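Side project, low priority. Logging it here so it doesn't get lost.
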Amino acid sequence: MTVEALAQLNNTLATAGFFAIGITAILAIDLYRTRTFASIVRRWGIALAFLVTAVATVLTLVYSELFGILPCGFCWLERMALYPQLLLIGGAVYLRDRVLMPRYGIILSGTGLLISLYHHYIQMGGSQFIACPSAGADCAKRFMFEYGFVTFPLLSAVLFAFLIVLYVYILKTSTQD
């Protein structure tokens, strides 16, 4: 893969991150206001969570395997909060579970959100009060820095925030059957 392809993918993902922030905010507001999207979330929420999680999982592997960007210790912790969700959501789709899986997803996504926000803080120049849990890649090194503040950990935080809002919405609407 070329440097140009990497730069284009970085820019595309950063731009998609802004879109994801907007969707997350709209869902969060709608959840506590009108629930306009309740029927859509009730029908497609788990499938959407699966799609988003699958794309995010593939993208982490594209960056590490195709572009050769080694994940740091915090990146691995964020991946550990993401990867199991793909399997859990797959099981939830198969079992038609809209109660247990979202609860586990909230726990995993909440953990991932906290780690990714701290990781973003470090990449923006903040001092480490928790050391990078890896002797490999440097946790403070930025491989993406779009629009002067968008980093991989920030996109990870947006992903986890979206999943949390989606899972809460699924739980709140699952009792309306």
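Brief comment: Residues 3-31 form the longest helix (29 residues).
Revisit when time allows.
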